[in-house]
Amino acid sequence: MNFPQELKYTKDHExxxxxxxxxxxxxxxxxxxxxxxxxxxxxxxxGKKIKIHGGLSVVESVKAVSDIYAPLTGTVVEVNEQLAxxxxxxxxxxxxxxxxxxxxxxxxxxxxxxxxxxxYQALALGGK
Amino acid sequence: xxxxKTPLYDVHLASGAKVIEFGGxxxxxxxSGILEEHRAVRTAAGLFxxxxxxxxxxxGPEAAYFINCLVTNDISPLHINQAMxxxxxxxxxxxxxxxxxxxxxxxxxxxxxxAGNIEKDVAWIEQQADGFQIELKNLSASMAQxxxxxxxxxQILQTLISADLQSLKYYWFWQGVNxxxxxCLVSRTxxxxxxxxxxxxxxxxxxxxxxxxxQAGEPYGLIPAGLGARDTLRFEAALPLYGxxxxxxxxxxxxxxxxxxxxxxxxxxxxxxxxxQKKKGITRKIAGxxxxxxxxxxxxxxxxxxxxxxxxxxxxSFAPTLGKNLGLALLDIHYAQPGTIIGVEIRGxxxxxxxxxxxxxxxxxxxxxxxxxxx
Lengths: 128, 375
Description:
The complex is a heterodimer of chains A (128) and B (375).
Chain A (H helix, E strand, L loop, with lengths): L7 E2 L4 E6 L2 E6 L1 H7 L2 E5 L6 E2 L4 E7 L3 E5 L4 E6 L9 H4 L8 E5 L11 H9 L3
Antiparallel strand pairs in A: 1-2, 2-3, 3-9, 4-6, 5-8, 6-7, 8-9
Chain B lengths: L3 E2 L3 H6 L3 E5 L2 E6 L3 H10 L1 E5 L4 E6 L3 H8 L12 E7 L5 E11 L2 E6 L4 H11 L6 E4 L4 E7 L3 H6 L14 E7 L2 E6 L8 E7 L3 H12 L4 E3 L2 H10 L34 H10 L3 E8 L10 E4 L2 E12 L4 E9 L8 E6 L2 E8 L19
Parallel strand pairs in B: 1-3, 4-14
Antiparallel strand pairs in B: 2-3, 4-10, 5-8, 5-9, 6-7, 7-8, 10-13, 11-12, 12-13, 15-18, 15-20, 16-17, 16-19, 17-18, 19-20
Helix pairs in contact in B: 2-7
């Protein structure tokens, strides 16, 4: 199972790609595997202000409804509109085409809370 | 309470199945994925382990009479080797369970009941049996059941048995069918809306039967299928699931199962309540829903119209074959007509839906295809 080195992660199985003041957010390969076939994604409205750990999105598989949380405090500046018709992109390409939203983030202390790939991998696969 | 396992538990793990707890059992929810398994059953075939289901035998001079007191359908027309579906009700008309009744012999019947209800059903049946000249046996632990379902199911099974499956009609079965040395009961029944078979064998032969069927079916596209796909398949066919469309709070008339409630057969448990309900008219009904707004309706979500709560979703899902989000809901009768626009409350927002006819899916009419044509 793939966990790209250059990304940051959260204990709730989100990944974050920091691009200057923008943070691209999605769910990890582990999360999509646990969920199974994803059939619906609720993306946040552009412009929404979100606090760290606040509700960012809802991802639904056939059997499960899963809340996705904001890894950082910020404002939603872009959402992946492809996911409306192709929710399976989150299963097929969770770190690429399956990205969910982009936040403009502010509080640089918060990035210290993000996990590196080794910490996340241990958390996700540790019990298995 | 530790969960129970079917004889195929290790086989499922070895196939990479994702296992979950269901009704006190550890069962495979999926192998390759729910959507893939669902589509395989609709286009080729899927093999399900349903050994968690329960089996109770009823034998004796009053077996038929007893069962007719127990269930709402009338089993007197049953021939030997024929099966029938029926709800089984409490005296208030609500449902204890829904089940299949197999006539094995002159005075011998087999009841096949839902896995999550085995203990409750056996206690209920034993209580109802008091005073009847019958012998009851709970065979659940010693019997395994596999379901082979899909348009290619008959071709696959035909490679394993000599008798012509074209002569095995829907809701009929054969006993003592030899499949690779295993003695099976093979019925042309199922819970998917496709053609298919349910195969019963001794528990100790289940693993071999599974392997024999998988091997025979592989060239036809047979894959293992789990409870996730079993649910999406029965849902598209609008087949009721106990605990959702049927329960101790819902009557078979409210669930639209009138055809299985024979009000000419007086004296079954629940008869008076159901006859009264039929006469008065039901006030709520299980209806089909199609989401017209963006969202997936799920069991337990509220249904609203005219500013008030008008019912509850009993089952809801993305429907893979139809590519839509659909639902079954117990609605106030005034809102249950196809074409009625209602709302479903999803995470605090009201999302539009419309009542539609059931079933959502019906399999295409059989083509003239001999099951003897082996590729």
